[in-house]
Structure formats: C-alpha cells, structure tokens
Amino acid sequence: MDLPIDFATLRLIWWALLGVLLIGFALTDGFDLGVGSLLPFVAKTDEERRMVINTVGATWEGNQVWFILGGGAIFAAWPFVYAVSFSGFYLAMFLVLSALILRPVSFKYRSKRASPKWRSFWDWCLFIGGFVPALVFGVAVGNVLLGAPFRLDSDLRSFYDGNLLGLFTPFSLIAGLLSVAMLVLHGAAWLSVKAEKGPVLERARLYGTIAGVLALVLFAAGGLYMAYGGVGYRITGDLDIQGFSNPLRTTVESASGAWLDNYGRYPWMMIAPTLGFVGAVVGLSGMWLRSAPLAFGGSSISTVGIISTVGLSMFPFILPSSIDPQSSLTVWNASSSHLTLFIMLVCTLVFLPIVLIYTSWVYSVLWGRTSTAALKTNPDLY
Amino acid sequence: MIDLAVVDLSRLQFALTALYHFLFVPLTLGLSFMLVIMESIYVMTRRPIWRTITRFWGTLFGINFVLGVATGITMEFQFGMNWSYYSHYVGDIFGAPLAIEGLMAFFLEATFVGLMFFGWEKLKPSAHLFVTFMVALGTNLSAVWILIANGWMQNPVGAAFNPDSMRMEVTDFMAVIFNPVAQAKFVHTVSAGYVCASVFVLGVSAFYLLRGKHVGFAKRSMTVASAFGLAASLSVVVLGDQSGYALTDNQKMKLAALEAMWHTEPAPAGLTLIGIPSMKDRETHYGVHVPWVMGLIATRTIDKPVEGIFELVATAETRIESGVIAYDALEKVKANPADPVARGVFETHRRDLGYGLLLKRHVADPRLASPELIQQTAWETVPNVPALFWSFRIMAGVGMFMILFFATAFFLCTVRKHDTRWFLRLAVLAIPLPWIAIEFGWILAEFGRQPWAVEGVLPTFLGASSLTVPQLWATIIGFTALYGALAVVEVRLMLFAIKKGPFHEQETFAPAPEAPATTVAAPAVA
Fold first, then answer.
1. Which end of chain B is more exposed for a tag (fewer CB within 10 A), N or C?
2. Domain map (residue ranges) of chain A
C-alpha cells in the first residue's frame, strides 16, 4: 500500500511525538507529582493539607493519562523500546507502578475518615506517590543516556544483565535528583497559581526556590558529565533510514563525548539546554517576585528544555546498549511498521486536539484558587 | 531454552493482576451509565431526590473507580515488563489499540471524572449531565479498544509475519478493528458490566428496604436497577460470546473443550449438560446429553458439524509439520536475507509458523522433533478441559439465573411490590454472583486460549521476558500485598459509605451557607 508519508519521515515524527508525550506528562502530571512530594512539608495542619490536595484534586486523574498514553504510544510506535526497557528496568518499573497505584487511592480515600492517623498515613502515601516516580523516572533517563546492559539474539529476544541497584550510579543519581528538583519547582509553581495566599504559599515559595537552584546546578552537572564522563554512542557504517525495523542491521560503537556531537552539527539544538537554564531562572524570579505566571511559565519552559535536551543529545538513539552496542535501539531501527506509524499518526492528529480542547475547558471551569474556607461548605472536595 | 518456571510465574502474575483489575471494571462500566440514567431523570424532573440518588451512587462509583484506574496502570505496562518477547513480536498490531484507548477513551473518562465529582456547584445541571455522560462514554469506549486488542489475541486477523523484522506486522487495520471476535466480546463484556452494576444497586437498595431505611431513595434506585438489569442480562446471553466460536482452530478447540466434546458428532451436534470430563481418559464420564442444541448454538445451522477434540488435534498435527518447514525456511532467510527459494517456501507455510514454534517447549530446534514429539505437542493444543467445562457451567448458570432474577425484580417494581421481603433477601445475597460469573468468564476466555498467547501465532511460553524467578516472586508478593491491602480498605470504605447512607451529606452540609463560622462541622466527605 502506498502511504503519503515515507517511512523515515514517519519515524522522525514519532520520535518527536514521543517527546511531546513525555513533555505533556511532565508538564501536567509533573506538577501533581511535585505537589505530592511537597505535601508533608508545605502543609502542616489537616486543613492546609486538604487545601493543597484539592489544588490538584479534580485534575490529577486526567493528567495521569499522559503517563498511561505514553506507555501505550511507546508500545504502538516503538515496540522494541517498550519490550526492552520495561523488562530490563523490571524492579524499578515495579517501584514506580506501586507508587503510582498508591496515589489515586490516597487522593480518594484520605479524607473519607476523620482519624488523624488514617489521614497522616495517606498523606505519606501521596508523598511516596509523588517523590518515588519523580526520582525513578530521572534515574531511568540517566541510565538510558549511559546505555542499558541488554543484548538481542537473532530472534530479537532481549536479554538483560543488570539489576536494580546497578541502576543507581553517580550520573543516574544526578539525573534522578534533577528530575525531582524540576518537578518540585513545577509543583511549587502550581501552588503559587492555585493555592490561597497564606502560610502554605510562603512555604511553597521557599521549597520552590531551593528546588529551582538545585535544578540549575544539577542540570549543569549533568551537562559536564555528558561532556567529560566518557558516555555516548555513535552509528558507524551504512544507515538505511527507510529500512525494516531490525536493530541488528545497524553498526554502533560506544564513543566518549558523542552525546555532544549533535550540537556541533546542528547548532540550533542549543536552544533546548538554553531553555532549560533560562526557564529555571525565570521560575525562580517568579518565586521571588511572587508572580504566579512567571513562576509557572518559567518552570514549564525549564521542563520542556530539560527533556528536549535529553532527546536531542541522543538523537538518533533511543536506547543504546552498554554491553552490546550492536543491539542499540535507534529512531531508524526500532519503530513499528510503516503502516502502523501512519495509522497511529492519523489517530493522534484527530484525537490529540480534541483532548486538548476538553482538557482546557475542564481547567477553565475549575479556574481559581482553592481556599480552606471552601472545605467547610463544599461537600465535593477531598 | 526458555525457563518454564519464569513463564508459569509470569502467567500467575498476569492472571492475578488481570482478574483483580476486572473486579472493579464491570462496576465502573455499568454504574457510569446508571448514573447517566439517574441524572437524566433529575435534569428532566428537577426533583432533588434524584440529585441525591445520583450523588450517592456517584460516591460509591468513585471509591470503586480509583481502584480500577490504579490497577489498570499495571495492565498497561505489564506486557513490556513480563511479556517482553510478546511485546516485540506483536507490538506492531497489539500496541495500537492500547494507545488509541488512551487517546480516545481513557483521556475522556479521566479528564471528565474529576469534573463530575467537583463540578456540581460550578456547572448547570444539564452541563453536569453532559460531563457524567462523557465519563460513561469514555469508560465504554475504553472497553471497545481493550477488547479489540484481546480479540486479536483470540483471532489474529489483518496481520502477517515479516521475516525481516522477525515479528508480526499489520496488513489490514480495518480487519483488526472489525474483528468479529472483538465485537462479540465487547457486547458480552459491557453487558456483563451493566448486569454487575444493576445487581449492586439492587442489592444495596434491598438492604435499605429490609432495614426500613431511606425507603423512597431505595425504591427509586431499585426500579432503575431492575429495568436496566433485565435488558442487560438478556443482552449478555442473547448477544453472547458464542458467535465467534467457529472462526479459528483455537476457538473451535475452546468450544470443544468447554463442552468436553471429544469427537465430532453428526450435525446438529448434541450438548453435554453435565458430566465429569477426564483429560487422562480423553472422554467425559456420566455425561447427560441434550441432542441438537450444541449445533444450533455454535453454527446457527442444523447441517454444519461441530468439530471434536480428537479431530482438532489431528489438524494441529498437520499444522505443526507444516510449521517446521516454515521454521526451517525462516532460519535460512535469517542466514541469508536474499535467499529467494527460502522466502518462497516461507510464504507457503507462513501461517503455520506458530505451530512449529510450539515444539520449542521441548526442543531448541523444532527441525529435530520426532514424529512422537509432534504428536505429543499436538495434544498440548488442548486446553484444560475440566477447568473450561466447569468455568463455563458456572458462568452460564449465573447468567441464566440473572435473567430470572431481573425478570422478577422488574415485575415486582412494576406492580409496586418493592417490599417483597424474600426477594429483598435474595437480592442482598446475590450481590457477589455477577463478579463470580465475570471472573469465570475471563478464565474461560484466556485459560481456554492456551497454549497460545496469540492464537496460532505465538505460544505463551515464548512470549515471556528473560527474567529470573526471584524477580518474579518479588513482584508477585509485592502486588499481592498491595492489592490485598487495598481490597480490604476498599470494601470497608464501601460499607462505611453505605452505612452512612445517601442523606448523610445533606445533614452535614445543608445549613452551611447560612451557618455561622463557629458551627462544628463533622469531617467532610467527598
């Protein structure tokens, strides 16, 4: 069947859409995770905690779909990546899933009982449900940059040589903490938009400022490690970007510093790390100046910049292999078939705008700060 | 070689997490539409009692809904975690419906569900009804796509194996979407969800009526549930799952196994009502037969035969032999992708490749299998007959009972005898029944699919990830502990909410707008 878009272009589009989904997840569910991580620290009394929870109470469920959809889209468009990464990072995935399973339940069940012990228990579950995924996602991205210890046999079955503790290296911890700092800044920025003015907001400003500074430092440290830490991979030999998806038909070598190659070749890509830094600085100034739009806008830009930096640095790699570079998964060898990518693109072009329209409508209906006073009169709040 | 302990534990984990997930899904599917019905009555009549009814069942819906969402997260990622080779092998087809489900359905339901709970004061009644309807639409569309994915595992249409990428690739996406097995499954599954929710609403209302509490509320809820339940229970059985059973060898095998029909009978085949099937003796002892019925149900004709297990095993044997030829050709293509002869041979035998792979359970290279091994492997295409036989009877028995049950309920509501005590007691006792039938239905569908992950394409044991036994025990124990604890919490919160009743919230919050700030309010409840 003749399709209007060629295979290589579709692969490129789906690589970009993968980025869009990850950024969508980080921008929306990201502040939910950040608010969860901040909950025990910015809110002390039960009233304050309920107020903080209700700033995301009505929308976290929809935001979380970005994560689910991310899983589904990787499955559909990058089945190799789905198969290799989730089985390889097996116990790390289990940690994330457990934390994310606790989160919906905690939101819904926390305020169903008056007992302080009951409520405190679920508050900590909300903290775990925010902090653990934020950390593990970052650690996972760090490991993707380093290369994962897997190899493919001639049936393209993947074998993995690592373990859970092996995921925690100095570089991946930098990435993990950067992810936490980035999302905590974003969460604090959300509270500056949505929480009522008062002590909670002041504490959020404090923690947001700390997180913003940490994000700047860790992002710079990660960049230095990529330059001098001896990481990176490079494709050698012929490349058939229109060919069948079979990773074993590409030759790859590990090459120190190769993650910076793209910035030399395509200088415009420098815009991504620049946004990462500038956004965080804008976010911080929003915190100092008590400007909610600056804080939230800045943390959003920073998030977009940081995630794009990872993707652009690695291009065309998606998941390199550290023990058998030959098995590395790239944009050109790990996608679905031409037809599937095309069908999925059509579906995305039809449905994603609809999703964005009704999501905006829901946010506009719920517009306005959440107040502690409303907790006494509105039976619908958590 | 594949570690079969890892395969068995992966299957155990999938069964546990999927069956657990599906304790919450049916109630979500059905209750969401019942909320739409209840709220529509409110919007049309503007009588506050209907608002109370909608909000109360909405509270119970919410407690159930979050666990469906939470356990659904596991389902979306578990294929990659535990079934890595499966994900690679069929991801090109199987991934698409899962992604579309997220995009088209889950986004809809999850985005609007927050507004459904939080938007009562912010929206006009008609706008809120629209939101509730979007939630119901989203949940049911979600079922469409998940069952398209599952239907493809039962009847893998519209796809072919590509020797260059060593996986199945889509050839006709429309065939995947309009897979007749998927359509039958969708109607069957959502109808079962509607029955489940009706039994739940009816049972809880009956509990209130037995106690003489919230009588007006309970009678109205009971009326909605009995009408909705009667329609749904008829739909489950009449538009049931049967229509897809004549399509593939495995579906035929599943039918033969659930009926314990060892040999092909002359058309129209009879039905074994009850008996004791034995895998060892390959026959059914003490069978009670009803002539004709089976042929009518399975083929909807009186002249087509229904194939028996022995005959289907013989077919499987030929297909395994052909599969070995396909496997040999594929190995040659792998060694030399340009070999035209091997590619030609592979094309001829491609549809039997999966049968050849079945031999990998016993030998690393299927080409070395002896005729005895091929025969033994052919018998391994028979799923566990007694398990299927009894699962089917439990499921179908409950299904038939549900029709009688709702017909009675509908009759009693129509003649305004809501307070018939024997029926109310029965209604409370009947609450667990739909869950039992639904879980056995899934056991029938998926256990009956064995030894295949995807019918005729990929054996289950080949689909697993290269994990270790300790890793699997860690997650099985972890999920079991987490899920077990959440189940206890869930049931207790449900009972707590039911005990407090539908008017609790109004007693707590009604005077709020005029009340002075010093009023000591009871703890608020969402």
1. N
2. 22-370
CA distance B198 to B226: 7
Integer angstrom CA distances of residue A202 from A198, A216, A282, A374, B19: 6, 21, 18, 20, 46
Separation in Å, CA of B463 to nearest CA in chain A: 9
What's the pLDDT tens digit per position in A162-179?
888 889 999 999 999 999
Q: How far apart are the C-alpha atoms of A29 and B494, rounded to whole Å?
A: 28
Is B102 close to A86, i.e. CB distance below 8 A?
Answer: no
| Tokens of residue A287, six digits | 């915190």
CA dihedral A225, A230, A234, A237 (to 10 degrees): 170
H-assigned helices in B259-384: 293-299, 309-335, 340-349, 353-357, 371-379
Tokens of B365: 């290279």
* Shortest Cα distance, chain A CAs vs residue B186, angstroms: 20
pLDDT band at A230 (very low <50, low <70, confident <90, very high): confident
Distance from the Cα of B100 to chain A's closest Cα (Å) equals 7
**Probe site for chain B from A10, A56, A97, A246 (most B CB atoms < 10 A):** A97
Contacts with B81 from chain A: Cβ below 8 Å: 86-87, 90, 93-94
* CA triple B288-B294-B297, angle to 5 deg: 145
Return the ∠ at Cα B466 (arms to B465 and B469), rounded to 5°: 100
Closest to B79 measured CA to CA, from B392, B405, B492, B458: B458
- Nearest chain A residue to B525 by CA distance is A112
- Contacts of residue A269, Cβ cutoff 8 Å, sequence gap at least 6: A262, A263, A312
CA A188 to chain B, closest CA, distance in angstroms equals 22
Residue in chain A closest to B90 (alpha carbons) equals A79
Q: Which pTM does this prediction carry?
A: 0.92
Give the whole-angstrom CA distance, residue B480 versus residue A353: 39
**Which site among A68, A136, A151, A161 would you substitute to test the B interface, given the most B Cβ atoms closer than 10 Å to its Cβ?**
A68
Structure tokens at B4: 């079969």
